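Need tokens for this chain, all 179 residues.
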Amino acid sequence: MMTVLHVVYDPHDPTAWYPNFLAGLRMGLDEAGVPYDYSPRMPERPRGPVFFTRYTVQKQLLEAAEPPEHVIIHEHDIWNPFTNAYDPADLWIYSHPSLAAILVTNPSMVPWGERYLPAGSRAQVVAAGFPYDHTLINRVIAELKPGPDRERLVVFPGRLNEFYQPYLSVRMAFELMDR
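Here are the structure tokens for all 179 residues:
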């Protein structure tokens, strides 16, 4: 039987970067030939690794009758001062026996992820980058009209600088488009 990556996403997440992350992830998995399924719910009895793409869906692991052997999480909010929405009560995920990997965006974030792991954890913290869907980025930017809400509507993390570069690069692109 072929192993499938179960990608669990939050269909109600309002974060501006999240649709691009999901689209880029899907493109990357397709290009790499990785079998996967996308679902807002974790399978009842997963037969492959489960990737929780947002902290908002991780509690499904606590409700699982049969927890998956390998859980992967993507961490963004816990150390991002601009979206510090992570509930400290959710730190249980770091000591869950199924946790196999934490994907962070930038190599400089690896030590942050390692600080949350308990002694003896088998989980790895991996600088995995950010999966871009440039077609989506270009389409969204092309469709946006000048206006006060424009920057709020689209933010694409570039990660040259962990926190400021996404905002600045998108703002600069809009400034140039307006000239």
